[in-house]
Amino acid sequence: MTQVTFEQLLDAGCHFGHLKRKWNPKMAPYIFMEKNGIHIIDLHKTIEKIDEACAAARQIAKSGRKILFVATKKQAKDTVAELVKAVGMPYVTERWPGGMLTNFTTIRKAVKKMSDIDRMMSSEDFLKSISKREKLQIERERAKLEKTLGSISDLSRLPAAVFIVDILKEHIAVAEAHRLNIPTFAIVDTNSNPNLVDFPIPANDDASKSISVIVKAVCDAIAEGAAERKIDKDNANEEDLEEESAEEENNVREDKDTEGEEGEDGRKKRPTIKRGPAKSATSKRN
Length: 286
Known about the structure:
By secondary structure, this protein is of the alpha/beta class. The chain is 52% helix and 12% strand. A hairpin with a 2-residue loop joins strand 2 (31-35) and strand 3 (38-41).
């Protein structure tokens, strides 16, 4: 698993926290020092937390489950969408729809509605039977659904974990994940409470470079877990094929054995019964 170096985090500005007057006292274990009224994050602890988060994300991906990424901040949405899309994970970068997790069945209905509109618009008979105004209204509704729910169209069940950028901005997502006991990963700045998430990563959550470095590390771990899952599947399929071939060989041998017991005319030979020596007439009389 590729590890993030101290220099990479330093170049990305991951060590810059918020002003001292805005800090959260629960972030004290992750703060290295104060400089010019700004808290500096201890990057050695950041590396430790990144390694823990990457190991957990790798195991989740290896099990075939999904991690939902949430980043609606302007400086994070494009970067997160690009990185997460490459590993095939769902993400929310526009707006967190209320009840996304706690009311998941309703969200799935909206996604199904989007697919129904696609199916409806693909039929030529339907397009001929409606007016231009109705067609325009349907296209607008489809675009609205695509903007908010298009990135989670493949999410058929609740995610195994949620990765959040800035837990203060995405407090609703954090609350919903807690209510459903879904593990949470998050980039936490000096103004956040790290105890609200299961895998906090202390770092600057405002700089796009800082967000990019951390999210890329997690995505690389997810890609490694997915690759391991594929290798395990291939090995399991090979073992199944070997077992099937072995069973076929045994069946062929059994068939050959039964064919050897048949006579020249194709009929099975009757088992020969050994008889003892014929008794003489004198013995019967006696």
